[in-house]
Amino acid sequence: MNKYDIVIVGAGPAGMTAALYALRAGKSTLLVEGKSYGGQIVQSRMVENYPGAPEIGGFELAEQMMTQLRALSVEIKWAEITGMRSTDGGWELLTRDAVIAARAVILATGVGHRTLGVPGEERLIGRGVSFCATCDGMFFRGREVAVVGGGNTAVQDALVLAETSPKVYLIHRREGFRAEKYLLDKLEGNEKIEIITETVVDEIKGENSVSGVVLRNLKSGERRDLDVAGVFLAVGVLPQNAAFADVVALSEDGYILADGDCKTSARGVFAAGDCRQKRVRQLTTATSDGTVAALSACEYLDA
Ligand code: NAP
């Protein structure tokens, strides 16, 4: 079995940056990805906080990262890693139909979408319930939509959707938003966006597609029905590290514990990007982690 120097799990910005550094260091490198490359960033229509690229589409940025890797003849395997086990001098990563051997591993699995867990939600995902305004907003052109959440994603989604929908309801369970001020400022004066705070969604209605949402005000208990064709969920993210729980130490809420050098509790296993326990999850911190994890892995291999 071919044993790679470094196997990187996840081809988001953290994983792609790790691959860039590993390849440039001359290490035999495999990038493993279960879905499509780019991670969460492909869902941002415009990225405005990546140094050197004042305005760039998220998809375009991911494309450019991959183009840079292809020029270095990156090897990619499209598979989901279901587990890993230690071997003499390294690790074996398991997929449904293969075993991949590595001397060092970088986990850059990112995060998945949190859901509300209300009636109608699961059944209507892809039928009006969406996690990506940039990707799906155009399907709702001319129709009223709702966004749920109070973070950066929710505010960005509301702004994107207001460009194509006549009315956007931004529904948040608290009075105050956790989104950054520069985004909140953009909401001001946007007459298409109605902000509904201290309110939760109790149900998403619709047979074959979304026809509305049932809201409940948390203070008064009052219920309100909104006729919307789309519901965009922006209620945060969840780690997806279950496959590695036996190997690396995780925080209580499932994020990988790693030190400043991106070293995990397991020898030769590093973690980079949103999948690891940290306070700031941004594109810049993901690429920073990718760099640190790759250089730490190189140092480990060369020791
Ligand atoms: P987030 O910041 O975690 O915000 C999630 C929001 O959803 C919070 O307002 C939370 O409410 C709400 N929420 C959670 N569970 C809920 C539930 N069951 N029902 C109703 N509401 C619920 O998530 P995010 O906006 O996706 O951002 C994730 C990370 O990516 C953040 O670090 C963010 O800064 C970053 N990000 C950055 C950019 C950028 O730089 N431009 C863009 C997007 C995201 P509470 O406030 O009550 O907890």
CATH topology of the largest domain: FAD/NAD(P)-binding domain
- Tell me the series of helices and strands, N- to C-terminal: EHEHEEEEEEHEHEHEEEEEEEH
Bound molecules: NADP nicotinamide-adenine-dinucleotide phosphate
Mean pLDDT: 96
Number of strands: 17
Low-pLDDT runs = none
Strand content: 25-35%
Approximate helicity band: 10-25%
Largest sheet: 7 strands, mixed
Number of helices: 6
Shape: elongated
User: What is the CATH architecture assignment of the largest domain?
Assistant: 3-Layer(bba) Sandwich
Between the first and last Cα atoms, what is the distance in angstroms?
A: 23 Å
Secondary-structure-derived class: alpha/beta
Radius of gyration: 21 Å
Instruction: Return the domain count.
Output: 2
Highest-level CATH class of the largest domain: Alpha Beta
CATH superfamily of the largest domain: FAD/NAD(P)-binding domain
